[in-house]
Design goal:
Order of helices and strands of chain A: EEEEEHEEHEHEEEHEEEHEEE
Order of helices and strands of chain B: EEEHEEEHEHEHHEHEEEHEHEHHH
Radius of gyration of chain B: 18 Å
Strand order of the largest sheet of chain B: 3-4-7-8-9-10-13-14
Largest interface: B-C, 46 and 46 residues
Shape of chain A: globular
Structural class of chain B: alpha/beta
Number of domains of chain B: 1
Number of strands of chain A: 17
Bound molecules: flavin-adenine dinucleotide, flavin mononucleotide, FE2/S2 (inorganic) cluster
CATH architecture of the largest domain in chain A: 3-Layer(aba) Sandwich
Strand content of chain A: 25-35%
Number of helices of chain B: 11
Largest sheet of chain B: 8 strands, parallel, barrel
CATH class of chain B: Alpha Beta
CATH architecture of chain B: Alpha-Beta Barrel
Helix content of chain A: 10-25%
Helix content of chain B: 25-40%
Distance between the termini of chain B: 30 Å
Oligomer: heterotetramer
Strand order of the largest sheet of chain A: 10-9-8-7-11-12-15
Number of strands of chain B: 14
Shape of chain B: globular
CATH superfamily of chain B: Aldolase class I
Number of domains of chain A: 2
CATH topology of the largest domain in chain A: Rossmann fold
Number of helices of chain A: 5
Radius of gyration of chain A: 17 Å
Largest sheet of chain A: 7 strands, mixed
Chain lengths: ~260, ~300, ~300, ~260
């Protein structure tokens, strides 16, 4: 349907370049689902829910910059919740997130705890000053932290934290973050693909499964409606981790992790 | 099951249902999927000379009666697109390359730079400056572009027409005159939606094209008028979502039917419509050929 | 309640909502009823030189997204119609006579033979040979007819435009050039429906005009384009059924809004929309004047 | 919605110029409601239900002639049931019908009996050879018959039969037939208008209340949706009985009864 108008009720500064906005109504999303957020006069972009009425935005370009110029009382257009959410299965969950990708995982972890699951988190940030939601994760269970610059926790990429944990001991692994990070984790957890759910990112335009912008090789999965949460065994044989399509539809190579 | 196979515009199709241009046509994989999931042929996203990112969002608004879109012809350029067409072939059905350009030579350059089973000339997109309907609303342009591409390529050439004119038959005749192997009708109606709360036009490009159920009655009328006037086949498109819609198109005179907006309900629309059409033909004890254009003989 | 009153195209209206031409406009009593039930003005059925029975039935098909009609301009001729206009006045709101003809002199004869608060020239009906859109798709005809009627009558003259063209702004400019006091956009889209069971086109006349929700996005686009280009007011019509639809029209630039198809839900549509618009203006702390055309300033 | 396709299951000859058609599905109409019957390639015309799956057609012009050329197994397009039906109130009903107008009354009478009402019928025909449904009415209760030519029953117009009955003794009077007949009855039953329901006929084109073809003076009642059954007190002050509009919308004077 048309975008609904939603008023910003609260703006929370998470880091210098990440903010959480509380909107004036709950969308009843599943963790992992997203909304299309219309910054009027600028653009419409996908944003994961970091809570029933929350989104957490990293400033990276024109649309997200425009979001940073909004204040309490301003309104945005919203369509959602959209796409598939994470599905909660088993008794123990390992959440692995990087950067602003930890946002939907915090929401997921809270839902997992609410149904009595055990939650362990492996979180990676560039630096301690960029870490978000550490308190939310710590309330849920054990947290393993990595930073690229070593300012806190293990020094290195997120996957460096895997040595502190036994991934195979968890019933389900939930991933969200930079593609190279997720790819790296999936490779290191070979054989467990059917127990890994990844929330992936592609260029989303229509968000209703018609324009073709978000489709991934080799099966033509429409990430906007059949994702963004996809089981890892459907991600290993194609473009994921290797390249992704930009706004024109042409492929760009994914930056490698090292 | 009765056969739905036939020859349409220079292609042999196992059934007359095609994926419409610009619908899940950006990647070879999504095109191949449409073939695997029952389409009789697939048409690619329209491709042009140079890469385009398309218009800013929102690019698609869903309204009760259909969609309004202004994608803005995003495409990686024809040079980057051949690999998608090659992959699309793996779907096992003909792949039609939709091409756009701003003049006959641009159209020819793009089409002759691609290898495909047929070409569909987008002379009808209502929301991209200098392209589509801006040139395609003049019969003379349509004829000239068609002729140029016909000269440049060996494969069949179809011309997709705009309904945003007072006389679509004039455009169809021009395409036929230019040597087209079929016409495709219709592209979207030029339209707009405004956000009542903020006053902003919703689409990033303000103007867009209306598709889906809303435009079916206009499409049926265009197909009926065109198929009465032309010698070449008419491929119907606009608002087809169930077998009755496809049947209406064929009764109006369509040789094949393309499906766009209805894909938002999933790929199974191809199988569902094919099954419905087959049952209908059996019940009516009719062939597809006998069904075609029946409405013209009934009035 | 905030005032919705204003001057539109030479008339003072208590609210900007009018009964559209051809909708419950055959009798004085039904027109007066629309006035009593909340319309700000009423437009009559289109009347011409000589009586016409209209097309054989079916004359109206209801489809999910609106109506397709081919009434065929039934009317008892302008000579028999003055008495209906006089009765219609008892509704207490201005009565606009919609007139049609095949050339400037026919239009003038009909209009000058009637006494009404304003005239609306039907240059846009898509399904009557020799009338309506058949002449109204050429700017030169529009200008000529408008000028002739302006010379012939003292009352304001509005020109109703067809959307079945590639450039409705050209038609609007021609009407303005001819001296029109307002343009009305849009009439129906030329369309068709076919009965799948029998193969027959459903309408007695085969072709008809699409109205209702399906055409609102096209109407909004036309109102937006016209109001950006013209100095005279634009009256919006097409698919308005609730206050949000009317608001969209006004935001696009409409000075008033006509309602047709939605009357199938009953006359209370006028009061409902007026109430919704008033509340909206109060909530937004805006006047109708400030609201008008806001979408143009927002893009 | 679009006309549905309905197959003719049975054709019953009532008189030389009246036939009853049984269609292949029941429309669940109220007595008094009508359908729009599309004779493909010819016209679409209003027809009252004479039973849940029955219509009774008098041959008068092109469309009805075309109906007479149809046979069992042929199909027609149908939209309906449309409009208002008769409402059953009170314990005793007087049905007054003339010509083919008795058709919906036979259906009504059967429904009235089924809920335990007493039913009396006053029926007028031009001649005994044009009488229809006499058996259906006789099964319901007392029948007073008139014929213009005196070939059976009272000689004269339908209203001549009123002297055999005391209209004021009935809780509700139901009318259907030629307008002059109904007008005549309403005049003779002055003071009882609020207990009289008349099924009236106007030029019906759209049947959905938008085209204006069926509207009657002085209130602009839309007969197609607010009728065809209308209480007599809404019919006395305007065009009813005086004139009616033809297909062009222009008024024709009603032929007077004598
Ligand atoms: C399902 C999903 C959920 C997301 N959730 C979040 C979130 O919770 N928080 C957050 O900060 N970001 C999230 N993103 C990414 C966010 O959409 C982009 O950062 C944003 O679109 C950038 O827009 P821009 O104009 O600021 O920057 P641009 O300069 O326009 O783009 C910067 C980069 O953002 C990406 N991007 C731009 N537009 C789109 C688009 N329409 N679809 C997908 N990616 C795009 C591209 O990789 C691009 O290179 C999510 C993306 C997806 C697909
Ligand atoms: C609510 C209603 C219920 C009716 N029920 C019955 C019925 O049960 N049985 C029956 O035999 N007839 C019924 N009629 C009348 C029937 O509709 C006409 O006899 C029929 O339309 C004639 O069409 P034609 O082409 O045969 O004749 P024409 O020569 O076209 O018309 C003959 C006369 O029929 C009337 N008529 C024609 N078209 C229409 C129309 N669209 N709407 C209303 N009247 C029209 C006019 O009075 C006209 O003068 C009903 C009419 C109405 C309004
Ligand atoms: C999102 C979207 C993108 C489209 N892109 C193109 C395109 O690139 N080229 C083209 O010729 N038509 C394009 N179209 C038009 C469709 O091919 C089709 O003509 C139109 O949508 C009507 O069919 P439908 O009602 O089945 O969708 C697009 C339509 C939509 C909805
Ligand atoms: C049954 C019907 C009859 C109409 N008759 C006329 C007419 O006589 N003259 C005219 O200018 N427009 C006529 N129209 C067009 C309407 O006035 C209006 O322009 C159109 O229906 C779009 O508005 P809507 O969507 O609110 O109905 C008619 C429309 C309908 C549905
Ligand atoms: S974003 Fe359009 S298909 Fe997924
Ligand atoms: S028949 Fe059209 S309003 Fe009643």
């Amino acid at each position: 349907m048309r975008p609904a108008s939603s008023v910003i009720r609260e703006v929370l500064e998470e880091t210098e370049s990440v903010r959480t906005l509380r909107l004036d109504h709950s969308f009843d999303p599943l963790p992992g689902q997203y909304m299309m957020l219309w910054v009027r006069g600028v653009d419409e972009i996908p944003m994961s829910f970091s809570g029933p009425d929350l989104i957490t935005v990293q400033r990276v370009g024109p649309a997200t910059r425009a979001i940073f110029s909004l204040d309490v009382g301003d309104s945005v257009g919203v369509r959602g919740p959209l796409g598939t959410g994470f599905s909660l299965t088993g008794r123990s969950a390992l959440l692995i997130g990087g950067g602003v990708g930890v946002a939907p995982l915090a929401f997921l972890g809270e839902r997992a705890r609410a149904v009595g699951m055990e939650v362990t988190s492996l979180l990676g940030f560039r630096s301690t000053s960029e870490a978000v939601f550490l308190d939310r994760f710590r309330r849920l269970g054990r947290v393993v932290l990595t930073t690229d610059d070593g300012s806190e926790g293990i020094c290195g990429h997120t996957s460096a934290g895997l040595c502190e944990l036994d991934p195979s001991a968890f019933d389900q692994i939930y991933l969200c973050g930079p593609e190279v990070m997720m790819w790296d984790v999936i490779r290191r957890c070979q054989g467990m693909e059917s127990r890994i759910q990844a929330c992936i990112s592609r260029y989303i335009k229509c968000a209703i499964g018609v324009c073709g912008s978000c489709c991934i090789d080799p099966d033509g999965i429409r990430v906007c409606v059949e994702g963004p949460v996809i089981r890892a065994d459907r991600l290993t044989a194609g473009e994921f981790g290797r390249y992704r399509r930009g706004p024109s539809g042409g492929p760009d190579v994914c930056k490698s992790v090292h | 099951m009765i056969s739905l196979a036939g020859d349409v515009g220079g292609l042999r199709l196992r059934n007359p249902l095609m994926l419409a241009a610009g619908i899940l046509g950006t990647t070879g994989a999504s095109l191949a999927r449409a073939g695997r999931e029952g389409a009789g042929a697939v048409v690619t996203k329209s491709v042009g000379l140079t890469p385009r990112d398309g218009h800013p969002g929102p690019t698609v608004v869903r309204i009760g009666v259909g969609l309004i879109n202004a994608m803005g012809l995003p495409n990686p350029s024809y040079l980057a697109f051949q690999q998608e067409i090659d992959l699309a072939r793996e779907g096992g059905v003909p792949v039609v390359a939709s091409v756009f350009g701003s003049d006959p030579s641009e159209f020819s350059q793009v089409a002759s730079g691609l290898v495909a089973d047929a070409f569909e000339l987008n002379l009808s997109c209502p929301h991209a400056e200098r392209y589509g309907a801006e040139i395609g609303c003049q019969p003379a342009n349509v004829e000239e572009v068609t002729r140029a591409v016909k000269r440049a390529v060996g494969a069949p050439v179809w011309v997709k027409l705009t309904p945003n004119v007072s006389d679509i038959v004039g455009l169809g005749l021009a395409a036929q005159q230019g040597g087209a192997d079929a016409v495709v009708a219709i592209n979207t109606l030029k339209a707009m939606a405004i956000d009542v709360e903020s006053g902003y036009p919703i689409l990033g490009n303000r103007f867009g094209g209306l598709s889906g159920p809303a435009i079916k009655p206009v499409a049926i009328r265009c197909v009926y008028e065109l198929s009465a006037a032309l010698d070449i086949p008419v491929i119907g498109v606009g608002g087809v979502g169930c077998w009755q819609d496809a049947a209406e198109m064929i009764l109006a005179g369509a040789s094949a039917v393309q499906i766009g907006t209805a894909l938002s309900g999933g790929y199974q629309v191809f199988r569902d419509i094919a099954a419905g059409l087959s049952k209908y033909l059996v019940r009516k004890d009719m062939t597809l050929e006998e069904m075609r254009g029946l409405a013209r003989r009934r009035s």
